[in-house]
């Protein structure tokens, strides 16, 4: 959950708050890289529970990159190599949505919330 919240802050904040959010997110990914070590997966040689819990976060990376300018591939290449290993597993690649769709979903949700907010303000 900490990964998701920190990642979300990278595009929900602006200016110096956004820079701090990016540093926090990269710091969390760094901790994950340290935990991964030289193993192919967090559990060792085989895909495990931690991998399955963390890899869906990848779907949002494109959104983070577009909206905050943070290149996760550049900042944490070892973490991205792990993501690519996970995506080689058919059980993972066939169940995750296209990461570019997450940006579209974010845009659609933002527009809907904005309309609801404006409607609420006008109603009262």
TrEMBL record:
This is Uncharacterized protein. It comes from Pistacia atlantica. The lineage of its organism: Eukaryota, Viridiplantae, Streptophyta, Embryophyta, Tracheophyta.
């Amino acid at each position: 959950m900490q990964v998701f919240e920190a990642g979300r802050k990278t595009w929900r904040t602006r200016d110096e708050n956004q820079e701090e959010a990016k540093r926090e997110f990269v710091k969390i990914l760094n901790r994950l890289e340290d935990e991964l070590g030289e193993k192919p997966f967090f559990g060792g040689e085989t895909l495990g529970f931690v991998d399955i819990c963390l890899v869906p976060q990848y779907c949002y990376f494109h959104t983070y990159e577009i909206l905050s300018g943070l290149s996760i591939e550049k900042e944490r290449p070892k973490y991205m190599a792990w993501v690519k290993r996970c995506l080689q597993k058919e059980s993972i690649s066939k169940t995750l949505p296209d990461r570019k769709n997450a940006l579209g979903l974010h845009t659609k949700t933002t527009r809907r919330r904005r309309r609801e907010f404006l409607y609420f303000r006008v109603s009262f």
